[in-house]
Write a structure and sequence with these properties.
Number of strands: 2
Low-confidence stretches: 99-103
Mean pLDDT: 90
Structural class: mainly alpha
Number of domains: 1
Distance between the termini: 28 Å
Strand order of the largest sheet: 1-2
Radius of gyration: 14 Å
Shape: globular
Number of helices: 4
Helix content: 25-40%
CATH topology: Arc Repressor Mutant, subunit A
CATH architecture: Orthogonal Bundle
Strand content: under 5%
DNA sequence: ATAGTGACTGGAA
DNA sequence: CTTCCAGCCACTA
């Protein structure tokens, strides 16, 4: 699911969980990302919390790395280290039908 | 089996 | 607008 998030856009844990069919289990998304190998090609940096902030230890290595990766792809952070979800949230175009397409 | 711990969240304060 | 807090539930020891 995370691989679908386009460059320069972000999604929240809850959003990813929802889209992945794991409603109400955003933490599971966090566990999954936490378990990724350092060599992963999954764009994990594009997943942030519902407050628009990086959910890693503030000031820590991971925190800084995630922020740099995002800024590198055009995501802006305000002075308080927050991303405007209104501007950068990814809105997936419904492609794989939820149920059955009418017609 | 029990208890503690979160890469979380929505709602209350 | 912000911070706080209870609910959350898989995972681990």
């Amino acid at each position: 699911m995370v691989r679908r998030i386009p460059r320069g856009r972000v999604a929240t844990y809850g959003q990813v969980a929802e889209l992945a069919g794991l409603a109400r289990q955003p933490r599971l998304v966090g566990y999954a990302l936490h378990a990724l190998p350092s060599t992963t090609t999954v764009p994990w940096q594009r997943v942030i919390n519902a407050r628009g902030m990086v959910s890693l230890r503030p000031g820590g290595d991971g925190w800084l790395r995630q922020r740099l990766l995002l800024e590198r792809e055009g995501v802006l952070f305000d002075a308080r280290g927050r991303v405007s979800l209104e501007k950068f949230r990814w809105h997936p175009s419904r492609r794989w039908p939820v149920k059955k397409v009418r017609k």
